[in-house]
């Protein structure tokens, strides 16, 4: 990717839903091909994305105005996180990262890592200093990003019918 590409991070709009759903379906298939059980049981689905957008949870990273990455950011609300086999680093306000999906058109360009930088900037701008996230044990790509971005493994949570590895990063 050249420096000429203009990257933006913004809230998703309902007009983005079809493109986002296509990206989510690509990610579901990619996880299946990789042998992951994550996202193989009908979640997330089109209604999940519509709900994200209507609740202002949905965000997109665009490259030259084309949607490249989708993510849901949820402030202070993940019931599954109230019970953790382990311990969170903080107990205050937090943002949860859910449903990270990269378009096949942009795969392998480092945009998921860039997304995490932009999320940190956004969360700081909202005066929140904790980001929490979970992922499947077999989601090697996400586990690598969380490690590279300095997230701390905190334990296990039970979410979407399975045990997930839970991580937190405290923003200074």
UniProtKB/TrEMBL annotation:
Superkingdom, natural source: Bacteria
Coiled coil stretches, renumbered: none
Pfam families: Acetyltransf_1 (PF00583)
PROSITE patterns assigned to the protein according to its UniProt record, in alphabetical order: GNAT
Domain N-acetyltransferase: 7-172
Protein name as it appears in the record: GNAT family N-acetyltransferase
Source organism (scientific name): Chryseobacterium edaphi
Phylogenetic lineage: Bacteria, Pseudomonadati, Bacteroidota, Flavobacteriia, Flavobacteriales
């Amino acid at each position: 990717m050249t420096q000429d590409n203009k990257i933006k991070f913004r809230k998703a709009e309902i007009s983005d839903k079809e493109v986002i759903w296509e990206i989510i379906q690509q990610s579901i298939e990619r996880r299946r091909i990789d042998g992951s059980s994550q996202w193989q049981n009908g979640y997330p689905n089109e209604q999940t994305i519509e709900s994200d957008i209507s609740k202002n949870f949905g965000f997109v990273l665009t490259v030259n105005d084309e949607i490249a990455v989708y993510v849901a950011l949820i402030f202070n609300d993940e019931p599954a996180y109230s019970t953790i086999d382990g311990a969170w680093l903080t107990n205050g306000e937090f943002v949860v990262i859910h449903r990270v999906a990269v378009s096949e058109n942009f795969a392998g360009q480092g945009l998921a890592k860039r997304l995490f930088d932009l999320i940190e900037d956004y969360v700081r701008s909202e005066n929140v200093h904790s980001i929490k996230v979970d992922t499947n044990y077999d989601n090697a790509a996400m586990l690598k990003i969380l490690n590279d971005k300095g997230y701390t493994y905190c334990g296990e949570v039970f979410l979407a019918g399975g045990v997930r590895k839970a991580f937190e990063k405290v923003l200074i």
